[in-house]
Amino acid sequence: MTKEQALYRLTSLCAHSEYCQHDMLEKMRKWEVSVVDQASIMEYLVRERYVDEERYARHFISDKIKLNKWGRRKVEQALYMKRVPEKIYRPILEELSDEDYDEILFPLLRSKLRSVKGKDEYEIRGKLIRFALSRGFDMDIVLQAVENIMKEA
Question: Of 1, 52, 59, whose CA–CA distance to 24 is shortest?
Answer without folding.
Answer: 52
